[in-house]
Amino acid sequence: MGERKARTLSKSHSAHARKMTAPGASNLTALLQSASTGSATFVRCPSATLGQLRGLNEAEWITLFTPFVPHPPSTVLARNMDPFEPLGRLLPRQVRHIPYRMDHGMTDTHVDFLHSSGAILVVVCSTENVLSHDPKAFEEQRQFAQDISRKASQDKSLANVPVIILLITNGSGRQAHEEGLKDAPALVTCNNYTTAALANAVKVMFGN
Question: Which stretches does DSSP call E strand in the chain?
Answer without folding.
Answer: 41-44, 61-67, 94-100, 119-126, 163-169, 187-190
